Amino acid sequence: MELPPELRVALDEELQGLPAKKLAAVAADLSQRYRGGAPVSGGKFVQSPADATAYAAFRLPATFGAIFSAFERVRERLPEWEPRSLADVGAGPGTASWAACTVWPDLQSITFFERDQGMIALGQRLAAHAEMPALAAATWRNVELAGAWESAPHDLVVAAYLLGELPETTLQGFIQRLWAMTGGVLVLIEPGTPSGFARIRGAREHLLAGGAHVIAPCPHNAPCPMAADNWCHFSQRVARSRLHRQIKGGELSYEDEKFSYVALSRMQAAPVRGRIIRHPHIQKGHADLEICTPEGLTKISVTRRDKARFRLARDLRWGDVLPEDSD
Description:
The chain is α/β, with parallel strands linked by helices. It folds into two domains: 261 residues, 3-Layer(aba) Sandwich (Rossmann fold); 41 residues, no CATH class. Helix content is 37%, strand content 23%. The chain contains eleven helices and twelve strands. The strands form two sheets. Strands 1, 2, 3, 4, 5, 6, 7 and 8 form an eight-stranded mixed beta sheet that branches. Strands 9, 10, 11 and 12 form a four-stranded antiparallel beta sheet that branches. The longest helix has 18 residues.
């Protein structure tokens, strides 16, 4: 997938004239901090304007792709729901809000909650290029996310790639605060790693106990059936620009962003039969699918002899919901 044209223009303008080698060095240092799971100082991974710019060059396209994919799954499950207000918590440069405006172009108001002034400044410069009125007129709030702050309810609340940056002792209270400000749907997204999924799973369990309904990816509100040595995650392919390839030291024109997520709602969605939770293995004579269903995890193998079922299985993708008329 590609970034929205105006976001691509804004990002290119932001990076224009900056040496790729310098950006790559800053991005590598920033990446190491995130992999290490601990910020340098002051509870922040991003320490300078250069960090914010490197983050945009290094991570913005991939995070946009993951967030957009999660939002698309929400829209798939709630096709009639149209959020009017959005709270983007731990907004960074506003990536999630760009994705939300792409999925729900009738959004009317956006409030960003971000602790780093450099990220806020970058996000405001990017938003100045937006054609969507909600982005151009958004409100930015500089808050200490793990501290005490309040917010009015919003239809849609998102916290993307944030939980892993917060002290573990504050997570449950923070997640409860997000839910309290959610009028419709809360979307949480983390890296598609065992630790990222563990945070998503913990948030899911906590909010289900408080009456939330899972919209995606789970096809049920039951306890997660994933074994302790496994993790639920998905993938989104994202196009790389030439500068993006230079910074990452990659040759391919794309990358696959792995992410874990959960979307929880105050409303119920129509039930689904299951969701594909691994990349389908399509062989010469059969297709193998791993599916999460309301009854638990299951594996299905469809042979080419059953032409109709094989054709259906062959067209399914990782993350897809099973068609209602399938058997």
